[in-house]
Design brief:
Layout: E1 20-24, H1 30-43, E2 47-51, H2 58-61, H3 64-67, E3 69-73, H4 77-85, E4 89-93, E5 100-101, E6 111-115, H5 124-129, E7 132-135, H6 147-160
Parallel strand pairs: 1-2, 1-6, 2-3, 4-6, 4-7, 5-7
Helix pairs in contact: 1-6
């Protein structure tokens, strides 16, 4: 069999819009946020929420920065409580006691993946309002994934389901 490159194929068609939102506290690195926006665009995710003073690097985010709406808020808890009232399931992405393995977790269609800060993860205040917490198994060192990498893995798992 012969293979030929087909770079930049048109996107696959979704039967209906994704009902996934990705939310994050202030990040130390705008590179992480920009990588997450690029993946969100690839996955058909249309809405992300960020806090602090985020800046999107268009060279990293590419065309996704045109299709993913980035909402900027001062703090996450009030926004997440509002989304919970709209029947979104709040899913923290963090290593905690009682966290469920991402490979066994079943996402609700209306979910918010809440990604922690690169250094401190999800605060106690955020953990208290999560419906569920999932973690991604790590098989070597370091003992956790980069925030953007973890968010990408979780978004892809949501889409795969």
């Amino acid at each position: 069999m012969s293979f030929q490159h087909q770079r930049h194929k048109p996107p696959s068609t979704l039967k209906r819009d994704r009902e996934l939102i990705v939310a994050c506290p202030p990040f130390r690195s705008n590179v992480n946020l920009s990588r997450m926006i690029r993946m969100a665009g690839c996955c058909g995710v249309q809405r992300m929420i960020a806090c602090g003073r985020p800046k999107v690097d268009r060279e990293i985010a590419r065309d996704s920065s045109d299709v993913v709406k980035l909402e900027i808020h001062r703090t996450l808890p009030p926004v997440l409580r509002s989304l919970a009232a709209e029947s979104y399931r709040l899913v923290g992405l963090e290593q905690t006691t009682g966290a469920e393995n991402l490979h066994r977790y079943k996402f609700n269609r209306r979910s918010v993946i809440v990604v922690g800060n690169e250094r401190i993860g999800l605060s106690e205040e955020l953990l208290e309002i999560m419906d569920d917490v999932v973690e991604i198994p790590v098989y070597g060192r370091p003992f956790s994934y980069n925030a953007a990498t973890a968010a990408v893995i979780a978004m892809y798992e949501y889409c795969r389901q």
